[in-house]
Amino acid sequence: MERGEMLALCLLCWSCSVCVVTAIQRADMFPYGTLSGDLILAEGDDETSRVLPLPKTLYFYSSPFTQLYVATNGIISAQDLPMEKQYVDDGFPTDFPVVAPFLADIDTSGGRGQIYYRVTETPSVLNRVAQEVHRGFPDAKFTPTYAVVATWENVAAYEEETRTTAPSSKLNTFQAVIGYDETDSYVLFLYPEGGLNFFGTRPKESYNVEIELPARVGFSRGEVTYLIFSRTEGPHYSVTSNEQSVKNLYQVGNTGIPGIWLFHTGNHYSFDNIVPASIGGLLATSPPGGHGLPLDTTTPDFEEYPDNTFDLNNKEEEEEEDDYPLTDGDPEFQTAPAGGDHSKSLQPASPDAASSPSERSDPGPQVLHRSKDVPLNSEPRYGSEPEERQYAPPNPPEAVAEQGAQQIQEQQPQDVYPHHSKEPRLSPGGHVVSVDEEDVDFDTGVIRYTTENKETCASFQQQCSQHAFCSDYATGFCCHCRPGFYGNGRHCLPDGAPQRVSGKVSGTVTVGSTPVQLNNIDLHAYIVVGDGRAYTAISEVPEPVGWALMPVAPIGELFGWLFALELPNSQAGFKNAGAEFTRHAEVIFYPGNQRLSIIQTGRGLDDHNHLTVDTVLSGSVPFLPPGAEVTMDPFKDTYQYYPSVATSTSVREFLVVSAERGSESFSFQLKQNITYRDCQHDNRPAALETLQIAMERVFVMYVKEERILRYAITNKIGPVGVEPTEPELVNPCYAGNHDCDTTAQCVPLEGQAFQCQCATGYRGDGRNCYDIDECAEGLSSCGAHAQCVNLPGSHRCQCQSGFEFGYDGRTCVDMDECSSSPCHSNARCINGLGSFQCQCQPGFYGDGFHCSQQEGQTARPMSLCELHRDSLQSGVEVKGLPILGAFIPQCDSDGRYRPLQCHGSTGHCWCVDSQGQERPGTRTPPGTAPKDCDRADDLLRPKTLCEQQRDSVQTISPEGYPLFGAFAPQCDANGQYTPQQCHSSTGHCWCVDSNGEEIYGTRTAAGETPRDCGKPDEPERLKTQCEHHRDSVQTTSPEGYPIVGAYVPQCDANGQYRSLQCHGSTGHCWCVDSQGQERAGTRTPPGTAPKDCDRPDEPERSKTHCEQHRDSVQNVRYPIDGEYVPQCDAHGEYTPLQCHGSTGYCWCVDSRGEERAGSRTPPGAPPTDCDKPERLKTPCEQQRDSVQTISPEGYPLLGAFAPQCDANGQYTPQQCHSSTGHCWCVDSNGEEIYGSRTAAGETPRDCGKPDEPERLKTQCEHHRDSVQTTSPEGYPIVGAYVPQCDANGQYRSLQCHGSTGHCWCVDSQGQERAGTRTPPGTARKDCDRPDEPEHPKTQCEHHRDSVQSTSPEGYPIVGAYVPQCDANGQYTPQQCHGSSGHCWCVDSQGQERGGTRTPPGTARKDCDKPDEPERPKTYCEQHRDSAQSTSPEGYPITGAYVPQCDANGQYTPQQCHASTGHCWCVDSNGQERAGTRTPPGAPPRDCDKPDEPERPKTHCEYHRDRGQSTSPEGYPIVGAYVPQCDANGQYLPRQCHGSTGHCWCVDSQGQERAGTRTPPGAPSVDCDRPVPVAPTQRPESVCERWRASLIEHYGGKPDPQQYVPQCEPDGQFSPVQCYGETTYCWCVDQDGREVPGTRSHDVVKPACLPSVAPPIVRPLPRPSVTPPPNTDITLLYAQGQKIGVLPLNGTRLDASRSKTLLTLHGSIVVGIAYDCKENQVYWTDLSARTINRASMAPGAEPKILINTNLVSPEGLAVDVDRRLMFWVDSNPDVIERSNLDGSERQTLFDTDLVNPRAIIVVSSTGTLYWTDWNREAPKIESSSVDGQNRRVVVSDGVGLPNALTYDSSSGQICWADAGTKRLECISPDGSGRRVIHSSLNYPFSMVYYRNHFYYTDWRRDGVIAVSKDSSQFTDEYLPDQRSHLYGIAIATTHCLSGSH
To answer: What are the C-alpha distances in Å from 1162 to residues 608, 1126, 1146?
Structure first.
């Protein structure tokens, strides 16, 4: 035997005889976690932290470093790390500097562990490091200044994801601490007991080889430089060499404490290699309570020791293979350890608290690592600890005996309401892929329960949902959802409400041979619980794996199982699993044998009650060709249920159809198990149970353009084998074809009957339900210091800042910030309600966070008790005396709290600890003997719920005054609620249960005999309205202070309103009826006898204005201190004198309660005699009070003049303007006395001096006084010109504008003298100099001068005609246009003489030659003369076309446009002859040549002729674009805008070719050459087109509350959409469709995540037609971007053969019609603003028929006989028609339409029908197809008539109304109206066929069938892709009779 082994054996024997040495516990590690200020390393396999800068230089070996990095793989480095493959599988040394507490291939992905790190200078940490170093290196002179703490908690080894075994549950926890000063560094490694459960990892490159590399522990300097450019290995040091040495890490140590290792690692001056500590050796022990003295033995080198050396009772080796326990440690299954304190076994460990170590099962001696001598404060903490923190130790040892065994499970921290977004991982051991019954031991008899370890609701009810109640059973407690909710009690959801799921998908999926990484992509699911439809969408799925994952519908099946439609005697999975579970599934594909692992973890419910589920995929799947379609038939799966687990195994087949491979069949096998928490304490039967899931419809799809993978599955759950024989006999609730709202629950009744009930949290009739805002309606359960947040169907409470949820998880209590020691060590922390403050101790100064000592201070600082005492005494003195009721702590001579404290006012006494905190259970009431506080405590128990609630009540204000009126519960000696509770202020008493909840019906008022609370309860009745009212009144403010003045209704013993109610604060009393409503005329003021409320009322009169005013003030939930309450007399009228109870002011009022002016008196003054007649306001007072001196925002307004009135309301003789300083005298009417005004700085006139005889106002004074300087609202008007008058009232000859600075001369009438105006800054004219004689302007000169030849901006205007005048100002006989060159003769009035106009270049007329007898103007001359070439303002109009007439006044055969240069031929009426127009520069046509036979107009000619270039008034429209057509009527390739000069190329349809537009003056693009489109060019998106359409609809200026779509820069819909500038917002998907349940009125917008990133711009596939299956009758329906086909089998909907006819990316298809003669489908596209058609032949492509002048095309109809189509455009509100090819378009109606929607045509009668859902006057109208005989068919009893169809069998018109919810029919003459169905959901479009109506429904998002004969729903079709359906039409192989 070698020497080391002998030593080990000897030491082992010695250890057995002396003691058993144990390693440190987790609580003995250095504090860590976010509460300690740690940062958290990102999850992953190879992560490195961000750089961690060091405050001072760290010396490692002898090299200086200023930064560190922490890595996943158990190391700390001084430089950024390379890829892990370069070092993780290699031994020491490394190429870079490393501190390695456990170097191995560690992986924290999927939430398996956390890594924390920080740099700290906290004294407690530094002190402990110093102690460890001084213990290990006694001679070291070391005082650390900084420490680096890195902790790896519950981290796992990397495992190959393709392995079939479940993830290992072996997790490691260890810590490294680096302490250093200016010269040295030391490192501590800490390994707690149970912290190492794996000791090495497998190399990634050779994973299939069964080798494992032990972890490396030690240090490496890394490469060092020598000879300048060369590098070599640096020094290194290894602590471990093989697996056994790694196992020894927590069993031995070199500090005297097993698990703690210390090393000297660097020095500034010289350092060769690492030096380990040399104290204590392997088995050094220390006495309990501290380290004790070190032993003499040292062992510098460590040998190997077997596992059982130190734990003689450990049987972990034998249990090591049991890695996968079926269930997790659950408090509902928790058993007690064998021995030890049972109560403590329930307390979870916390890494941030220095709590005691966990109790052990073995009773042997324990060596505990403690540091009680650390003098400094603990580590500061920041924020809150993540709730998912939990310890996952190795599998606990189990001792199984034949006669009764006990199983020990470690307690896991549990959820505490409210749930947070991150939830703990569940079932870390439940990783089985499949479970066979014979492999699972379900014998629960191995768990023994005793009364000592029983968990009760009193301690654990916070684990229940807020919508659940807790029940105690013999062996423990269980949570049960309250009525109206469902779930497992821990998580409860509202019955019937739809559910949303969100989460992430990650992992690696190999497609064929290509691995594809999924990096946390989004998963969203939506489940309609009422019918079991589950929709799942995974976004951003890469293309190869997107196609391949289509068959993997089991990803979405989980949500189907959770929320399936429940058949009788069954329940969906959520009622078992709740929101926390783990699902393991394995899919094996055949024939390729590929395997895919699916792990889905439920993380709980988030703040919005949405389920959070994360999915990890790993493995391989078969390759599927791009574009393939996958079809899966309906199937059934049987689930077997065991305690806490459900399992299933099934085989599925699926069909793959692709262009490359045709049709192929595949299959896969699915094995799965779902583990969850289950509560067995309620003695439910544990027998094996099976349920069957029927997945009736499975739809899978991958959308390549959007990279979305979709699954849609309809699920029902029921007993195995129970199926109805006749589908028609199934109740609609179970069949899922009911019409209840998606937020309603379907309740089956007898036979086919059912009832719709809105889900909990919603209200309505069941078919239309709306969310209840519990917060707004005061129905929330939130208490003090909490705020309510409304959720769909529910609400949540969140604590205000500075508060946190208390022990019960519901009550908000003050957060004691001082517990984390945020203040400086020389400061004290004062915790306040919702906040804290730091104050430096006496002798120190600073802000409390940093305190410095004052010089010369030697006195003892004040203690905490003294500071507490003095702060209260200084804050509660009035006139030097303390106020009664304030508690003042008592301190001893040393300043410490006396152990016994007593309240001087109440007489209560209690014991306190050294911090002054009350010790629970020590409080005694007055008159009883106080506790002996020097006696040692019994085992300290935590505060009970009663004590916490009692201690949280504020009985003292922040200033130290006692607060009256706050209710503090009474607790017994054990801290439990006393059965009877009383309110000390009101005198009310009542009984409570064990949770302190009031037992209804037990409350008694003051003076009544209290109930006997010990008497057993009668069956509990529900709260009455009075009790709800009473309990909802807030009597305590959010800060915990009592609210004075709150009215609390009084209820009798039965909970009914007492007939007499009194207000406790005001003293008013009144009678109420049974509903608590005040009976009018019964209110009496305080001090008067109240009414006899039992006496019957006289005939009740309605409340008066005064009584309504008074009651509206008093009946508020939160009374407002100081609110004025009007006083009413016995008749309800206002008393003449009103007084304000708080301020003391009194005033008189009129009969309406309006204050009478001048009657208000201040407090203490005698009130006005209100019976004295009131005088009216004088004119002065009225004028003064009407002037606005304050803006609406509250700012003073400068410049407003307010007159001054004397005490009698008369104008004071002298008035002054406070802004300008002007003063003047006024008469008794306030009119200014002229000549009395003085400017600022001048001496005012003596207005008391008698006036000279008053003269009349002059014209100037009238003018001046008439100018408005104040607006009607009383605001001063800036910029008004006020004329200046001299002392005699005459106009001053020089006038100036005060605002603009212009000056000019005026005559005696104030008229400006021409040519005298001067701008500001120039010399003014001498106005006293006489003008030269001036002759008046002639008519010609007026005309000439009136023409605008310069624009307002000063630019010359080209083309203006300016008449020519001779020297005498007369018109010259011949006038010419300077721009156009035309000349003509005029008469003396300037009027053109007919027949004298000559064009440019021709001989002009002799205007001196007398006229021939004048003939009347011809049509051409009238047209020419009516053409407006000058605007009404005198500006020339550019671009106006003026026709040319010959000498006889007839149109010249050829006409030309002077501006554009186009020429064309006209007929005798001036109408253009088609095909004759030529562009500028081209040779004009010979207009004398006879026309060829006229061809029909082309699309270009229609477009051109429709272009309006002249307004109805005859003015040319500037800027109107008129397209140019060639000789054949086709669009010219190059188009130009005549006004703007822009030019561009177009295609054959006249559509602009992108990238070809050029500005004016730039060279044009060659339109015959192809133009490459810039890469950044993209077409206008749906969002942008819709946005432009609505803005156009709103007239270009939408109101702030109107909806305008918000688009992203790339054109996609923004995730959040809002109504204008309001806070009414919702989320949308990528198509702009609203995401249900996201509407919010909050100021904070909903958090909407884009479900899909914008797709990369790529050409979309060309849409082509896939014809429907061979069938006679097919329904065509529009659904957003596609047209679908739904065949009919007779009159039944054949969903199995439904498919997509045509996919139209970027479109919104609304109206749809079918031409049975040519087998073509027509539709309107709201997005593209087009009307289109396509043949229903295979491969046919869409054709655009109309694409101009459409805004919002909706309804569409085809007349198959007349070959016409009709449509409505709901934006311009018009009805139009055209031929089926789009030609001969014309408007039928454009008046008296508001919101036209549906339109049909009855070909057999030639009649048109349409609906108009004008909300003010909805109607259905008709006319002939040519627009004649328009009339209203029906207008009464319609609401929103969306859908319209024709019943050919009866000849009636039928419509479906989304407002009235009715389907009705009526004859065309208005007779025979009848209701077919009275409770539709939300119909949009409808057709009729064979006594059935088929309509699209927006509530169900499907097609619904209704029988005309039975008036019942007969069928429905719900497409797999859930979105709104629009139009619907019938396609037939032959035309039906009566087709329309």
So the answer is: 54, 17, 7
